[in-house]
Design goal:
The chain is built from 2 helices and 12 strands.
Length: 219
């Protein structure tokens, strides 16, 4: 079922994209890592920040930071991922507890149907995000220009896995950090455009609160 696939994708994004949300100000996420020229982790993000990507299969993905909202009495950072593939749009939303950075709620909207899963607070987010991947080799500084004409500085890293040789370009000048991903020399994902304001919310608070509940498949 597509819902469970999208849920799995969100867990992967949490593990590899987010450095966590901190500070007292609602308007920003924690700044990027100061080491290695500041090119690791995220740049500080304002509500409405977004990054759009093209994937090798022709699909488009937009990652958004919506801002701070409240769910059942808990202030949360709201993150949204919009995927368009073969003309079909799927929106996945993640609510992270502002005080602990733990996931509180996942919401998925597909084909006009909105579903949600509340997350037990003993679940941990995988650590290690916002830093160079374990076992990686730094390839040096890179410059990347989006198809819309925006040029950013990045640092490239190479990791050898069972799937082959993976290369990632990361920049704090881009919301969510990711610029480019390659596997065995072939591009899998590339930054199309980005901005620090203007991201529209695809799932409203009311839709999230009133969504049907779902759970992960057992066994």
């Amino acid at each position: 079922m597509k819902t469970f696939f999208r849920f799995s994708v969100v867990l992967i994004l949490v593990a590899f994209l987010f450095v966590g949300c901190g500070g007292e100000e609602e308007k920003s996420l924690v700044p990027g890592d100061k080491e290695n020229g500041g090119a690791l982790g995220f740049a500080a993000m304002n509500p409405g920040s977004w990054a759009e990507y093209t994937l090798s299969d022709g699909s488009h993905e937009i990652n958004k930071y919506i801002g701070v909202d409240n769910y059942n009495g808990t202030d949360c950072y709201v993150l949204e991922f919009e995927m368009t593939s073969n003309g079909e749009k799927t929106i996945t939303q993640m609510w992270l507890d502002k005080s602990s950075n733990k996931p509180v709620l996942y919401v998925i909207k597909e084909g006009g149907v909105v579903m949600k899963m509340e997350v037990p607070q003993n679940q941990e987010i995988p650590s290690g995000s916002g830093t160079a991947p374990v076992g990686s080799v730094e390839l040096g500084n890179k410059k990347y220009t989006t198809p819309t004409g925006k040029t950013v500085d990045a640092i490239a890293y190479k990791v050898t896995t069972t799937a082959g040789e993976s290369e990632s370009w990361i920049s704090t000048q881009v919301p969510f950090g990711t610029v480019k991903a390659l596997l065995n020399g072939k591009s899998q994902l590339e930054l199309y455009d980005f901005g620090t304001s203007g991201a529209d919310r695809g799932i409203s608070k009311q839709e999230a609160e009133n969504a049907q509940s779902f759970g992960l498949p057992q066994g």
